[in-house]
Amino acid sequence: MFKNQIIHFSLSLSYDQYFKVYQGIAKNISVVADDGRRIMFSAGKIQPFLTKQGIHGHFQLELTAENKFVSLQRLK
Predict the structure, then answer these.
(1) 1-13 confidence digits (pLDDT tens)
(2) Domain region containing 9
(3) How many distinct structural domains can be found in the chain?
(4) Cβ of 61: how many Cβ atoms within 10 Å?
(5) Each residue of 41-75: pLDDT tens digit?
(6) Residues paired with 68 in a beta bridge
(7) pLDDT at position 21, please?
(8) Are the CB atoms for 28 and 42 separated by under 8 Å?
């Protein structure tokens, strides 16, 4: 049995940048993980972290061995 993948990345998006999701212009977030991999995931997954200032912080994304979404959390 394969283990889930844990991927760390930083993200800094202004509220206006994220607003493109609501406008239908953007559907995915693409970032470079701390280990250098480029990852892409649905913009809706990061929405719970949206504030009036946007989305800022260091995050942990968990994926199955088949690259299916498991969880996303902001790290302190």
Answers:
(1) 689 999 999 999 9
(2) 5-75
(3) 1
(4) 20
(5) 999 999 999 999 999 999 999 999 999 999 999 99
(6) none
(7) 82
(8) yes
Handedness of CA 43, 48, 11, 58 (dihedral sign): negative
Which CATH number goes with the domain that contains 52?
Answer: 2.40.50
Chain-centre distance of CA 35, in angstroms? 15
Give the CA angle between residues 20, 18, 4 to the nearest 5°.
115
Give the dihedral sign, CA 4/34/43/45. positive
Contact 11, 33 (CB under 8 A): no
| Cβ neighbours, 10 Å, residue 43 | 19
In degrees and rounded to multiples of 5, residue 17 shows phi and psi of -65, -45
Q: Which stretches does DSSP call E strand in 1-76?
A: 5-13, 28-32, 38-42, 55-63, 69-75
